[in-house]
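hey so u asked for the seq, here:
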Amino acid sequence: MLQLTPKLDEGAKEALYLQLYRYIQGEMIAGRIPADARLPSIRRLAETLGVSRTPVALAYDQLLAEGYVISKPRSGLYAAELETGNRAQTLEQTYATPSPPRAYHASHTESVPYDFGYGSIDVHHFPWTKWRRLVNQCLLPENNRMLLYGDWQGEAELRAHIAQYLHQTRGVRCTPDQIVIGAGTYHSLDLLFQLMKKDVSTLALEAAVNDGVKSLVQQYPFACHPLGLENDGISIQDVVNSAADAVYVTPSHQFPFGMTLSIGKRMKLLKWAAERRAYIIENDYDGEFRYGTRPIPSLQSLDESGRVIYLGTFSRALGPAFRLSYLVLPPSLLDRFWKKQHSYDQLSSPILQKALLLFMQSGDFERHMRKMRTLYHRKHDVLLEALTKHFPKSAKVIGAGSGLHVLLQPGNGMDEVELVQAAEQVGVKVYPTSVYALSPEWSMPATVLLGFGGLAEEEIRAGIGLLAKTFGRE
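ran it, structure tokens below
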């Protein structure tokens, strides 16, 4: 049996389970815990370390969620096989940059009692009073420059705060000069594709993607290669076979199917990109919201070759109407941005950028995010409880544990169209998933999407109760 001897400090600010998690993670990356080594049981390790079972269980859960370990029924946890590289480069070496020269969403027009649309947020808990005060502050005469175009890369102070926020919450390593603020995910992607088009002839992307991304890709002359989806993320063999110059992925919470790209596959994907000098586009659209385990570190945080382009949005944190997104560009693409090798000048409203900056500076943004994580965690659990209560065990729930949506396969003999129509007849909106497939053969059979962010807990319970009665009819 493998022996683990971490040095745990109960007086440290960092929780015991995080200390243990980091120790085991480090030992595995360094190769001191070999692949297929069996980890001690929770009970045995807790006794050895003289701690309760809770921190050990939490550490193991996080390792399992990130793919560092695999679970074998009735046997235990085993170390996964990792592709590890040289991680000795410093942040300054890796990210040195030249100095710059100066779709299918919830309906808001139809009267539907229970709308489980993707993309909805809880507007009732938005900090209206604080935000109104901040916007009013931006519109004072002394801030009259807010009415002009502003910095076409995004307000410098806001970029600095976003860089700090991303490092603290997602492990992203970048300088403020690498960040370009955009007016929503699709605008940021459109800008990125313009910067990449000289280098990319073949784009590999997940076999199912957001419909807006799919539509945008079709506007460019990229040859598209679909990547099969497995329980732990994209097929790495499909990546190798694609001969692609760039790969688009949602590794922390695949959209729409919800799986997480395992650490082993992350290392292999990064190694492939470094060897081929290909780009990886990481869309971390809802990485802030993970329930039960610590948020999965971003793929960009593991990148030592500057091949990952990180894409994020404030649509889940604040609301889609703000149209605030951001790209973290590697130096080569950043140089093209500064040389104006694209068709954009101002990407996002300086007024909203300034208001967000003030929101972050005051500490209110961090407090708002803590509140929303707690709120969405509770709604997520209410949804799962309702599905467990009302649906038989034969029904399958996919993609739980992260984000603001899950998928449901009722297994009642209805096809996708019948499911959507039957639900609407009783005042419940659910959404098809076939629209996200790059081609019909990649569709999941009879699967609907349930977004829960915009519904109250009682609405979730009532809506699922109606669905269960409706889907129970053959």
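Residues 85-103 have pLDDT under 50 and may be disordered. The radius of gyration is 23 Å.
lmk if thats what u needed
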